[in-house]
Design brief:
Elements lengths: L2 H15 L7 E7 L2 E7 L13 E7 L6 E2 L5 E3 L2 E5 L4 E14 L2 E3 L11 E12 L14 E5 L11 E8 L2 E2 L4 E4 L2 E5 L5 E5 L5 E11 L7 E11 L3
Parallel strand pairs: 9-17
Antiparallel strand pairs: 1-2, 2-6, 3-4, 3-7, 5-6, 7-8, 7-9, 10-11, 11-12, 11-15, 13-14, 13-16, 16-17
Length: 233
Amino acid sequence: MTSRLAAMLLALALCLSSAPALAHDFWLERQAWAFLLRYGHRGAEALPLDAAKMRSLTCRKDKGATENLLRAAQVSPTQLSLTASCPVLSAFLDGGFYSLTPDGEQNLPKNKVPDAVKSWRSKQFAKWIDIHSPLAAQAQGDEFEIVPVSDLTKAKTGDKATFRVLLGGKPVSGAVLAIGHKALGETDDHGEVRVKMRASDVESVAVSYRRAIQSAEVDSEVFEASLTFEVAK
């Protein structure tokens, strides 16, 4: 067996065995009157955020029209910041196409990478909610999103809360939910999973899901989403 063939088989094995799971966080958080959108590992140093891949930063209010405030955000190498009053704020980052090769990943579809072993489309979503808003428990219309089923105004640290995961507005089963990169469960046939609240101030739950497709560009779509909120006292 040639070394190149061995490398290709190893790459394929790694790709097939890996869960579609949360290599990096993509999340919204609130500081004073500003929102920060970051990428990396929450609680650690933020990684570079490619603002060119951002597609929306949507503010939803209890009254009035929904607004895409992406153009109003201030961009820095590791974050987007937005000064606004939004009971619900959601973001969409289109990671584009990725292909795995024996030499590593390339941000290209497989029809443009001759030695591609596996390929996928990456889409990442982030949402922050004010748990006291009537909008908090409503689906916001993002392609992939987490919606609280439990009343989060009553869910304190150590309590369990149920979350529903929607893909295209419909519940999806088999999505992996995690807190702090620790997988805690998969959604059931109703798209729901119940987990224990861990944080004492701000909680962030994340979910990932891989959907197989067949096209000239990719073999699958990988969806990731986060939901961040202040924990009830």
